[in-house]
Amino acid sequence: MLENVSLSSSRNSCSQLHVKETQAHVLNFRTFKIENENGIRNLILRRNQLKDDFAISLARVLETDKYIKQVDLAGNKIRERGIQHLISVGFLQNQTLLQIDCRLNPGLTDKQRKQFALCMLKNIEHMQAKDLHIKKSYLNA
User: Which of 39, 54, 92, 98 has the fewest CB atoms found within 10 Å of its own CB?
Assistant: First the structure.
């Protein structure tokens, strides 16, 4: 399961993680054309038995990420608390994420489905206003 993956096997994992976060932070605030940069665009994590703690951690990463466009979390074990973090921290703060699929999670409510849709529209409008290209594949469910 993904919940047990270790970020580093060395003794200095905390300092290595801090350096990586700092580097990612610097990269995320550069001015760039998104399509010309390297980075993960689609994160497919469906049916991995992921829970709220993973969703909350992912939301924190998505908050400042500028590369990821789609996240597929369908068929996991994420409850309402984890999904709400994805919306409020991940999707509302991120202006380039275009889709999060949380279908078939026990915590997904109709209200949250609507919130996801509104966040997606907000980000599409934001990217269009900055004249950034949006691939049609990013918008397919």
Answer: 39
In the block, which residue shows the tokens 């290595």? 16
Q: Tokens representing 131?
A: 């004249």
Q: Is CATH 3.20.20.140 what the domain over 35-139 is classified as, yes or no?
A: no
For residue range 36-81, what is the model confidence (pLDDT) as tens digits? 567 889 999 999 999 999 999 999 999 999 899 999 999 999 999 9
Give domain limits for the chain.
35-139
Question: H/E element holding 44?
Answer: strand 42-44
Q: Give DSSP secondary structure letters for 55-119.
A: HHHHHHHHTT-SS--EEE-TTS---HHHHHHIIIIIIHH-SS--EEE-TT-TT--HHHHHHHHHH
